Amino acid sequence: MLLETARPPAAPPRTLTAVQAERVRRIRRTGAYLLLVIATAVFVLPFLWMVTTSLKSDAENLAFPPEFLPSSFHFENYARGWSGSLPFTTFLLNSVLITALSMLGNLISCVLPAYAFARLRARAASVMFALLLATMMIPREITLVPKYVMFAGLGWVDTYLPLVVPEFFGVALYIFLLRQFFTTIPQELIDAARIDGASELRILWRVMLPLSKPALASIMLFSFVGNWNQYLESVIYLRTTDRFTIPLGLAMFSGQYATQYNQMMAVALITLMPILMLFFIAQKTFIRGVTLTGISGR
After folding, report:
1. Alpha-carbon radius of gyration of the chain
2. How far is Cα 233 from Cα 10, in angstroms, rounded to an integer?
3. Quick one: how far is CA 255 from the chain centroid?
4. How does the record say this protein sits in the membrane (predicted)?
5. Which of 15, 17, 39, 77 is the most buried (most CB within 10 A)?
6. Are 168 and 110 in contact (CB under 8 A)?
């Protein structure tokens, strides 16, 4: 009978000491900060290039290889670009008008269907909501020609109507975000309002909207940025210079023989200020709205 050799007992699993665990946490934290710094530099570098280019002279804009910092700061580029041969004050007023009307249209047309999808019960509601989401997969470029034929037949070319009127018929993404936020509001509040005799519109106005400020701020910020930077449809429908918007005015800096990049960047920075100011003012509300719209899984 063979004697079985005794096996040595298995060694206990090695555990990290407190010092080693703290070292690992520091290494991970340092790596995460390093990645954040690199990502921040990637996003900030184009903006810094705009700032430095707006302060260069005409000769430095054409220098090769290009230099990042100008030899001297030319702040007069901002006045030359804004008050030059192009009426940027008119372009600014046009952009403000179109953006304000479009934001109003998005707010009116998206709140009502979002509330209906979130709180009202109807046959085939899930099917209609699925069809609404399916429209988000249709590229905007596909609808450009049919829309142009329709608006040209209505005589709306070279007016602001093709840029403003469609915003009063809802945007699928905004309806989806608002609907997701509305589902996070307790049903008890709505039931209590109905017991008190409030109509659905009164519930929406008195209960839902005051509690939905973060989501509404997110929608308004998305709408503002999208309409403020609108170029494709503006260049299709607007023909008269006095009706041009800021993006069309910036495109006019490109000349036949030379482009005044310093003045273009100066005006671009001026028109970028409203977006930056709006984001920094509503930053906390915007982030909270974007976060809460993804909480509900209904």
Report:
1. 28
2. 72
3. 30
4. Multi-pass membrane protein
5. 77
6. no
